[in-house]
Amino acid sequence: MPVALVTGARRGIGRGVALRLAESGFDVAVNDVVADADGEAVVAGIEAMGRRAVLVPADIARIDGHEALLDRIEATLGPLACLVNNAGVSALVRGDLLEVGEESFDRCLGINLKGTFFLTQAAARRMVRQPTDGHHRSIVTISSISAEVVSTNRGEYCIAKAGLAMLTKLFALRLAETGIGVYEVRPGIIRTPMTEPGAERLGQLIEDGYTPIRRWGEPVDVAAAVATLAEGRLPFTVGQVITVDGGLTFRTL
């Protein structure tokens, strides 16, 4: 059976993606920066569907740990057919662009962009070397509408997500001839622990029509897009971007 690695998978969007891929027949490596009860619950949920799962804690910002992470997954589940780059953090503090600090900038870029780039590189090298077993092979990066929508109160986050958009294009072009599909999914306002601090404000915006579809996005909405790509149901596409935002980026003035 095909094997997927989902980073940042113990909660929120990553959890939803891991469970949805299990429904689609994938065995799943559940990665997050810590191993805790949340991660174990995701593994248990996957195993309850009759799929294999393993919890593989690792900080993707630690580039020197990528090979060991992939080695453990291969030894436990087998070679990767799908990498889902989901792990990410927001700005340490929302505020004036003129006051962005180096710590927050480095943290955002280190985890969201640098770590993702080098993990993608490491996984892609292995995928290229390994003979295909007939399953579609894919790399799906969860970015954000912030890859193109400007938020001056969290500039470092926007820069990191814009970088992921280019990362997708670069790897998509490089790997197209190998049959490995590379895609980007851009969520909008999704109900997760990351959006919880602003839930009251965001909920009111949605109710007032901020998104044409007047409801919160849920992790299952993003997971449905990821599964479509991981299953190879858009076979004649390269670097495809799917926006999952309830129409937010189509708002008119």
Notes on the structure:
- The model has no long low-confidence stretch (mean pLDDT 95).
- The protein is globular, with a radius of gyration of 17 Å.
- It is 42% helix and 13% strand.
- It is built from seven helices and seven strands; from the N terminus they run βαβαβαβαβαβααβ.
- A seven-stranded parallel beta sheet has the order 3-2-1-4-5-6-7, with helices on both faces.
- The protein has 253 residues and is of the alpha/beta class.
Separate helix tally: 7
Helicity level: 40-55%
Q: Give the overall shape.
A: globular
Radius of gyration: 17 Å
Write down the oligomeric state: single chain
Strand order of the largest sheet: 3-2-1-4-5-6-7
Structural class: alpha/beta
Runs in which pLDDT lies below 50 for 5 or more consecutive residues are none
State the total count of DSSP E strands: 7
Helix and strand topology:
Layout: E1 3-6, H1 12-23, E2 27-30, H2 37-48, E3 53-55, H3 66-76, E4 82-85, H4 102-129, E5 137-142, H5 155-175, E6 180-187, H6 199-207, H7 219-230, E7 241-244
Parallel strand pairs: 1-2, 1-4, 2-3, 4-5, 5-6, 6-7
Helix pairs in contact: 1-2, 1-7, 4-5
